Amino acid sequence: MSSTREFVVVAHTGRPKVTDTIKTIMRRCEAAGIALRVVDQDTVTGHQDAHLADASEIVVVLGGDGTFLRAAELAHPARVPVLGINLGRIGFLAEAEADRIEEVMTTLIERHYRVEDRMTLDLSIRMGDSVVARSWALNEVAVQNSTHQGVLELVTEVDGRPVSAFGADGMLVSTPTGSTAYAFSAGGPVMWPDLEAILMVPSNAHALFARPMVTSPRSMIAIEVERDGPAAVVSCDGRRQFDAPAGARVEVLRGDRPVRWVRIDSDPFADRLVRKFELPVTGWRGRQV
Predict the structure, then answer these.
(1) Of these residues, 54, 65, 159, 194, which one is catalytic?
(2) What is the pLDDT of residues 80-96, one digit of tens each?
(3) Could you confirm whether 65 is annotated as catalytic?
(4) Which of 71, 83, 87 is nearest to 21 (CA)?
(5) Which of 102, 124, 128, 224 has the most beta carbons within 10 angstroms of its beta carbon?
(6) What's the rounded Cα separation, in Å, for the pair 284 and 273?
(7) pTM of the prediction?
(8) First and final CA of the chain: distance in angstroms?
(9) Average pLDDT over residues 22-32
(10) Cα–Cα distance measured from residue 183 to residue 189, given in angstroms and rounded to the nearest whole number
(11) What CATH number matches the domain at 6-118+258-277, 3.40.50.10330, 3.40.50.720, 1.10.760.10, 3.30.413.10?
């Protein structure tokens, strides 16, 4: 990191609410002598220059969870912490809402934030002895039917042993952070983000035993695409896609490099869960002291 402090902002520029928030960030950074770089989310691709965020102190995300995942592609290789400011609908990955931007900027400028590591997943796709694709995910690795016709025939394996074989729309392998995203929609459990584990969630499986499973973070998950069935497509965070032909083997491990996550609040995760999902808690009395 250089002696001059620098923040990188990733946003869908051009929208009025985003523009106003960026103006506030620019004003506060200029007053504090902090360099600022603004990157439009649409320019962030899976092949983005990995050094774009190298000199920065923080990557600030303005938007929803999709924008956050795009920004993570910049922050992850540079090992730079990322902070989400929600301008979207739910924004489960965001640390704060846009109406708190002045307070957030004061916290960042005065360095009154902390950084946590969030677990990631590393992906390898194999054909025989050859690795044909590698990638990583913060939320989930999704193995899906590439044709959307019929069912995808899969064999699942944990730690070198077969667990189940079934036809399905696909299989999701998720981190605790991703448990409130695609995996949750597919029927998986909510996992507290400081938990270290790997979640497996079949998607619309035709099988008697096709329940979600939670494994050790040290487990190696493998999903084999049957040779005589349809091909699959593998997606990482809905951002990076790879072909997995019939006969391919998809291997997922805990990632070697976490995403560094900026925290500015100490609210319990349960409070975030209730707030974001608007869960009914009427009648709660709490522990009587």
Answers:
(1) 65
(2) 999 999 987 778 899 99
(3) yes
(4) 87
(5) 224
(6) 15
(7) 0.91
(8) 48
(9) 95
(10) 8
(11) 3.40.50.10330
